[in-house]
Amino acid sequence: MAGIKALISLSFGGAIGLMFLMLGCALPVYDKYWPLFLLFFYILSPIPYCISRRVIDDTDSASNACKELAIFLTTGIVISAFGLPVVFARAEVIAWGACALVLTGNMVIFGTILGFFLVFGSNDDFSWQQW
């Protein structure tokens, strides 16, 4: 039952994060849809870690290069997702209020993605690898 509560709370977090992103785009004051390019970063961010989890052998307790590369690529994607709205705001493509809403949505969405891997990342009987 704890897994279902975690899944529901993660779904709620994702919905709240997307709400902030949509508010930063669709409010009549802002009315620019350039921040929707961040959806690509949300999709791309877990992919390196998922690939490295499938490739590496977890029996070795030492860190290996594949896992470190995946963490490095994921970090680059996340930092790019936080930097893109700031670049848009500096170039006056979007307003600073929209930038604040999009950055708040970024924090919530990436927190939700991190929570997903913390809750379902262990190799127990309720794991995301079964899906």
From TrEMBL:
| Presence of keyword Ribosomal protein | no
**Membrane topology type:** Multi-pass membrane protein
Tell me which GO cellular component terms the UniProt record holds. Answer: endosome; membrane
What PROSITE patterns does the annotation carry? Answer: PROKAR_LIPOPROTEIN
User: What are its GO biological-process terms?
Assistant: late endosome to vacuole transport via multivesicular body sorting pathway; negative regulation of growth hormone receptor signaling pathway
Give UniProt keywords alphabetically: Membrane, Transmembrane, Transmembrane helix
Q: Where are the transmembrane segments?
A: 7-30, 36-56, 68-88, 94-120
Q: Where in the cell is it found?
A: Membrane
- Protein name from the UniProt record: Leptin receptor overlapping transcript-like 1
Q: Which organism is it from?
A: Pleuronectes platessa
